[in-house]
Write a structure and sequence with these properties.
The complex is a heterodimer of chains A (126) and B (840). Chain A is mostly helical. Chain A is 70% helix and 0% strand. Chain B is mostly helical and 840 residues long. Among the domains of chain B are: 148 residues, no CATH class; 180 residues, Up-down Bundle (Four Helix Bundle (Hemerythrin (Met), subunit A)), CATH 1.20.120. The longest helix of chain B has 35 residues. The N and C termini of chain B lie far apart (70 Å). Classes of the chains: A mainly alpha (126), B mainly alpha (840).
Chain lengths: 126, 840
């Protein structure tokens, strides 16, 4: 009997666009943080000590990055020869993009936390 | 043809004759400048950028001579202002960015095994724009009218015409013109990397140089347009007195700083990454092994590119923004150190794992990394806001940026020069002179710039034409000046080495025993780029694939012939590089050069307020562009397809999203949309800056009616175009033409209605920043609607002339891409200017 489970990791199409999902999420979160702070300070003059909107935005960004990293990790484990993935085959190209996406997800995750930290330490608009 | 046919030496000779004839460069004193082949245009481009670098370097030497002793009077204060402004502007806009484009135009087709990049005439256009704009800007110093407001041209000093003269206009308009050529190069390079790779070179086999170039070209698309938007606002203020940056009339000088640095910080990485890309090519060669950690390099390139867009406010730490905003940018500035360090560790690991050959290029690479790391560390220091408040605008910053630029751009380029010179000329440069020059440069750079950290911390501000002896920094400054001349001696020695090159003997082919495709080039120059386009199965095919060079040379791969006497290359798919078509490339022509000169006329004549002549020049540009497109693009081939060898038959025409032209339009429009978003940012920036924006007494204009008319009719024009494309594809040509006519009418009405809003409500743009920014958004969108009229008219004319048919419909598909973006622009503009005043 052949295994007929749907193979999730191969269903998700890998492209150059999926490669940039994690850093794009970082960029969106960064822009969101900047606009949130700028508009809060300019229009309200302050922001709350536990800013719900900001926390929700940050958690969403982290979830998106973690999810794309997890998918990439699954894809990077598609069976094939050992790394380095440097043959001209479908599976090597897939695994190369997956590994790169996973690395970018790691960097983006750290960078989102970097961006969010100031809100913990700075509580006013001065 | 089969593999065995290529066994016949007669056939091979005949093929070579045909290829040679097709790719022959035009001869003659004047005609040779019409060349469009990448080996010619790339070489001119490189030499020109190198020339500008030397010129700007001499300006730097003059500054150091002035600053050698306290209270010096070698140059006037006004001249000194021109010297530092032009030195910085030229090094950035006329050397660092164009040099990367130039080197890529030379190298990229070789690296990708392509005969040329997909749009050779566009490269030529970019070159002539660059040359004209560069001579215009740099020549201004001989007439004592060079820009003098510093390379970032902060208003209000530079926008007030009583404080700054013609120089500011020369900077804005001259360099805007060069930004056009940068965007042109970005389009060329992105499409080249994505669509012109050899069969088999999937994304995971791409040379790392190509990865970097792809990333950097995309960065240009998002970094340069905000500056173009800023330039537009800046010139509107200078020429028409629209108060975008005038605080007294509701403007804000900080808006310029934002737009400039959204460009200016990514710019640092735009000039740094291509230099690191050269290392990624030469480190494996001189370690004689594959580069370790290929995906890590991709991580580093892509990660740096993204993070670099979150750093711009670290140039504005002292402008009084809320600390929370500063902290976000400080955090991103620290984070960018991660991917930057990753690539350096990858290189070290590769050298560790291989057998390193300490060649001259390697010496430069190692030396520049040492210098760059020092610049990077001071960068981490100034990324910490409280430290920056102390060091801002002092010589500490001058030291930091020169360590970054010399270690991250200039010295790596010299490494690349010594490495790739045999590829371009067939001859090696002198190892002895190269090494002496290296030590002069290395010692000179450190002696010049290290003391500047100290003089900065002692309190020496940047951009002063002299300093008093009592400050106690004369020793440090004298050291810097001596170092600058040692550095210059190194650069002069490299020039001597280059000048001696024609007298030297040819080197052997692939003299460094490298593994990547570009080293297939012959020492005896052949203009065809590559004899046959290989099937690539490895990252280092020359090392790994058996008999690779011989098979390429004997035409045993793809497209070994030019039967129809046309310049051709293979187009492949983005991810997996499966061949999908053969495209015909542009041949030598006057058109790119003449178009560049006509466009240059628009910018240069505007500088001197000769508006009618500028308008004429603009019309000439439009006519040239239409002529160029009509005669040179989307040509219907004489047959459906042609064989490329190994039994494969490839179509000769592509349209839609697989075609290079479609990608070029898409990429250009991404840049256009980014520039537009810079203007929209201006509108909302003013909103955050004011208690009430729009100001209550002005908020009744432009009203809701006209913007909504423009919005609705603009969307109708978009739908009509999409319908025309569909009808045309289904063979209903008459209906398609009718829809195009309707689309033209709708675009026209939308554009006029857009202007009618601010016009009929009597908005006075010189009064306040609100009417000024509303007018700007309306004019921007209406001008785009006017361009839509021309484009739809062009598609209609092509259809009527039989140059566009249901099967050959690239023109209409490309115009539709434009219309998608125009629809987006229309919605954002009219929703903003029509509806936002109601909400705010």
């Amino acid at each position: 009997m052949k295994d007929e489970r749907p193979r999730t990791k191969e269903r998700v199409k890998v492209t150059l666009w999926t490669l940039i999902v994690p850093p794009t999420t970082w960029a969106a979160h960064f822009l969101f943080s900047y606009l949130w702070a700028a508009i809060s300070c300019a229009k309200v003059g302050k922001f709350a000590t536990f800013p719900t909107l900001f926390v929700v935005g940050t958690v969403i960004a982290l979830i998106v990055i973690a999810a794309s990293g997890w998918i990439a990790w699954r894809q990077s484990r598609v069976p094939g020869d050992a790394p380095p993935h440097q043959d001209s085959t479908d599976v090597d190209r897939l695994r190369f993009l997956a590994v790169s996406t996973m690395l970018l997800a790691g960097l983006s995750f750290v960078a989102v936390i970097y961006t969010a930290l100031p809100v913990v330490f700075i509580g006013n608009c001065r | 043809m089969s593999l065995h046919e290529q066994d016949d030496p007669e056939l091979r000779r005949a093929q070579e004759e045909r290829l040679r004839a097709v790719w022959d460069s035009p001869k003659g004193l004047f005609l040779k400048w019409t060349d469009t082949n990448n080996d010619a245009v790339g070489a001119w481009y490189t030499l020109t950028a190198f020339g500008f670098m030397l010129f700007a370097g001499v300006l730097g030497l003059l500054m150091r001579a002035q600053l050698a002793v306290p209270d010096n009077d070698l140059v006037e204060p006004g001249t000194f202002n021109q010297l530092f402004t032009l030195h910085g502007s030229m090094m950035m806009f006329l050397f660092a960015v164009p040099m990367f484009e130039a080197v890529s135009i030379v190298l990229l087709p070789q690296l990708l095994g392509a005969r040329d990049l997909p749009f050779p005439r566009l490269s030529a256009f970019g070159y002539w724009s660059f040359l004209l704009g560069g001579v215009f800007v740099s020549g201004s110093i001989f007439f004592d009218v060079a820009p003098d407001g510093g390379w970032f041209m902060y208003p209000p000093l530079t926008t007030r015409t009583d404080l700054s003269g013609l120089g500011a206009d020369i900077w804005m308009l001259g360099l805007s013109f060069i930004e056009v050529s940068s965007v042109a190069a970005a389009v060329e390079l992105i499409v080249g990397v994505l669509k012109c790779r050899p069969p088999g070179m999937r994304l995971n086999l791409m040379p790392l140089y190509a990865w970097y170039i792809l990333v950097v070209a995309v960065m240009i698309l998002f970094a340069f347009p905000p500056l173009i938007a800023g330039d537009v606002l800046f010139e509107m203020e200078r020429l028409l007195d629209w108060p975008f940056f005038d605080a007294a009339r509701g403007g804000d000088p900080l808006l310029w700083q934002h737009l400039f640095w959204i460009f200016g910080h990514p710019e640092v990485y735009i000039v740094f990454l291509p230099s690191i890309a050269l290392f990624a090519m030469l480190v494996p060669t001189f370690s004689q092994r594959h580069l370790l950690g290929y995906p890590w390099i991709v991580l580093a390139a892509v990660g740096t590119a993204f993070l670099s867009f979150g750093l711009w406010v670290h140039h504005m730490f002292t402008t009084g923004l809320p600390k929370i905003s500063l902290a976000f940018f400080s955090a991103a500035s620290e984070a960018v150190a991660i991917p930057t360090a990753v690539q350096i560790f990858v290189f070290i690991a590769t050298m560790w794992a291989g057998r390193v050959i300490w060649s001259t290029p390697m010496l430069y690479a190692a030396g520049s990394l040492a210098i760059f790391v020092i610049g990077g560390l001071t960068g981490v220091m100034v990324a910490v806001a409280p430290f920056d408040w102390q060091a801002h605008d002092t010589y500490f910053i001058v030291a930091h940026l020169h360590y970054v630029m010399i270690g991250g751009t200039l010295m790596p380029l010299f490494a690349g020069l010594y490495y790739y010179w045999p590829l371009i000329t067939g001859k090696k440069l002198s190892d002895r002179l190269g090494r002496i020059a290296f030590w002069l440069l290395f010692v000179g750079a450190n002696v010049t710039f290290f003391p500047m950290h100290l003089s900065g911390l002692e309190g020496m501000p940047r951009r002063v034409f002299t300093y008093p002896a009592e400050l106690g920094i004369d020793g440090l400054n004298l050291a810097s000046s001596i170092g600058a001349y040692i550095f210059a001696a190194g650069a002069a020695l490299i020039c001597i080495d280059l000048a001696l090159s024609p007298r030297r003997a040819l080197a052997e082919r692939n003299p460094w025993n490298a593994g990547t495709l570009e080293w297939l080039a012959h020492p005896q120059d052949e203009h065809w780029g590559i004899r046959s386009i290989p099937l690539v199965e490895s990252r280092y095919p020359i090392w790994d694939q058996q008999d690779f060079m011989r098979k390429v040379d004997e035409g045993r791969y793809f497209l070994p012939d030019a039967e129809e006497g046309r310049r051709e290359t293979i187009v492949t798919t983005v991810l997996d590089a499966r061949p999908i078509a053969v495209i015909r490339l542009g041949t030598p022509s006057w058109k790119p050069m003449m178009t560049a000169f006509a466009l240059g006329g628009v910018f240069i004549l505007t500088t001197y307020h000769l508006y009618w002549l500028a308008l004429l020049s603009g019309i000439a540009t439009l006519a040239m562009v239409l002529w160029w497109l009509w005669t040179g693009t989307a040509e219907i081939p004489e047959k459906e397809s042609k064989p490329i060898g190994h039994g494969m038959e490839m179509p000769l025409y592509l349209s839609g999203s697989s075609a290079p032209g479609w990608w070029a339009m898409f990429i250009t429009m991404m840049a256009d949309a980014t520039a537009f978003s810079g203007l929209v940012f201006g509108y909302y920036f003013f909103w955050t800056k004011h208690e009430d924006f729009p100001p209550p007494e002005l908020a009744s204009a432009p009203g809701v009616f006209w913007p909504m008319v423009a919005l609705a009719v603009g969307l109708a024009a978009w739908l009509l175009t999409v319908a025309a494309r569909e009808c045309n594809a289904k063979g209903r040509i008459g209906t398609a033409r009718g829809l195009l006519v309707a689309g033209i009418a709708a675009s026209m009405i939308s554009g006029l209605a857009g202007i009618a809003g601010p016009w009929t409500t009597g908005m006075e743009p010189t009064l306040h920043s609100y009417p000024a920014i509303v007018w700007t958004l309306a004019i921007w969108t209406s001008v785009h609607a006017a361009i839509a009229v021309i484009m739809l008219g062009y598609a209609l004319a092509r259809s009527l002339a039989g140059k566009m048919t249901p099967r050959y419909d690239a023109d209409l598909r490309n115009v539709t891409v434009y219309m998608h973006f125009l629809a987006l622009t229309t919605v954002v503009t009219y929703a903003t200017i029509g509806l936002f005043p109601e909400l705010a």
